[in-house]
Amino acid sequence: MSSNIDESKKIKTAALTACTLGTFLVSFMSSSLNVALPSIGNEFLSDAILLGWTTTSYLLASAMFLVPLGKIADMYGRKKNLTYGLLLFTLSSLFCIFSPSIVFLICCRAFQGIGGSMVVVTATAILTSIFPPGERGRALGINTASVYLGLSLGPVLGGILTQHFGWRSIFLAGIPLAALSLFLVFRKMKGEWTEEKREKLDVTGSLFYSAGLVLIIYGLSIMPSRTSLCLIVAGMLVIILFAWWEWRIENPILDIKLFAANRVFTFSNLAALANYSATYAVSFLLSLYLQYVKGLNPQTAGLILVSQPIVMAVFSPLAGRLSDRIDPRILASTGMAIVVVGLIPLIFLEMHTSLTFIVCSLIVLGFGFALFSSPNVNAIMSSVQKNFYGVASATLSTMRLTGQLLSMGIVMSLLSTNLGKASIAPENYQSFLAGNKTTFIISAAICFGGIFASLARGKSGHVPEEAMINEQER
After folding, report:
1. Can you list the residues of the chain whose pLDDT is less than 70?
2. Which one of 190, 200, 397, 472 is separated from 343 by 20 to 30 angstroms, measured CA to CA?
């Protein structure tokens, strides 16, 4: 009995370490590249829209493949999915290092996004499978903290690497971490996590979903032309068609009926969508603002930007532990309200705004986001049964990435409207700042609406399997 307990403890430790390293790597690569965008733009002579696509291509590819990959992980093995994701992420990072043009880099970033989505969606599902409800909040809190630690170190190390070794060194720095994570998966994570029933993959639904996202995001990026409006409307219609298709087929990639049957699951995901839609573009815009308008170098800009994610990393584990004892609805809703308070001051960003003002706003944002994220994840994953863990994890990650995509879509549409194809130069700073102001107004409004979605979920808690089955039958 004692040996079985020890073995179980070792597997838990190995899984938590490997998943934490993987999610850290993905978040580190994302946040560190934001600081490097002005350097990339200078090397390839790129405008603000193409720089936006360097980030957006990663998010778009991740969002397109998350739900199908979550389903595949449930069917064929979550450990396999994690392994292939780490390998793809590493290979695409290598290709990014040797990018000869901005277009090639954007394509490589798309493949990197697919690998990153495999890592993130599988890591959450594995941890939820291994850790029981009483320990799950702590494990998910640690995993969430690794995301924020990656986001914290990303701007600092990314700025240092970019300034002293060039932006390509950022991709090189991530490869040793990927190798260590792969070693733990191969040598220490014994067993596999999968469901015995293998269903047919919904290829048609996957295509509908992917096409809808591409049409909407590309349409937003070419605002305010007539074509953009047509693309956005077409994308929305395809998403509606996707929802109709998923409702009627036997084995959907996204169980729409789960939303109809599970109030906590539905409104927790909507709250996540609102939160990420409101907050993701902050670091992108501030990176450009600090280096172009304020004239800071990448290293100094990274030190400013680190104030938000480092607060997230410190408080996320605490919020995760609290969510095992306090209703996650209360914690998450309070966090959303604090995020709104952090966004409002950024509306008044001007040419001569002090750096102290910016840092204080970022600290408030970081605390609010930490208080929201871990409890919200715990509420979502505890509201479904183990055979839904992969799909629930994929759905949550899809809400996160779709929110990030919408955030970047809003930014690119406003930059396109205010700057067009012009680069960010002194003569365009006022137009750039006008776009920032509108973005932060929209973000604060979205986040304010998200508070009500968070409150509307009702009392959170783990749902027994019998209750889930009965509720779905009703």
Report:
1. 1-8, 148, 151, 188-199, 223-224, 387, 389-391, 394, 420-423, 458-474
2. 397
Residue ranges of alpha helices (H) inside 194-351 are 203-221, 226-248, 256-261, 263-279, 281-288, 298-305, 307-322, 328-343
Residue 285's region, left for phi above 0, alpha for psi from -120 to 50, else beta, is alpha
Domains held by the chain: number:
2
d(C-alpha 377, C-alpha 370), whole Å: 11
User: How much is the pTM?
Assistant: 0.77
* 361, 453: one domain: yes
Residue 208 in tokens: 């509908």
Q: 318-352 as b/e, with b when 16 or more CB fall inside 10 Å?
A: ebbbbbbeebbbbbbbbbbbbbbebbbbbeebeee
Please tell me whether residues 156 and 219 are part of one structural domain: no
Do the beta carbons of residue 432 and residue 293 sit within 8 Å? yes
Q: Are residues 325 and 209 in the same domain?
A: no
The answer to whether residues 385 and 465 touch, using CB atoms and an 8 Å cutoff, is yes
The two structure tokens encoding residue 264: 């906590």
Residues 197, 291 share a domain: yes
- Cα separation, 123 vs 119, in Å, equals 6
Residue 47, φ and ψ in degrees, nearest 5: -85, 175
Q: 362 is in which domain, residue-wise?
A: 2-201+253-473
Nearest residue to 306 via CA among 449, 154, 93: 154
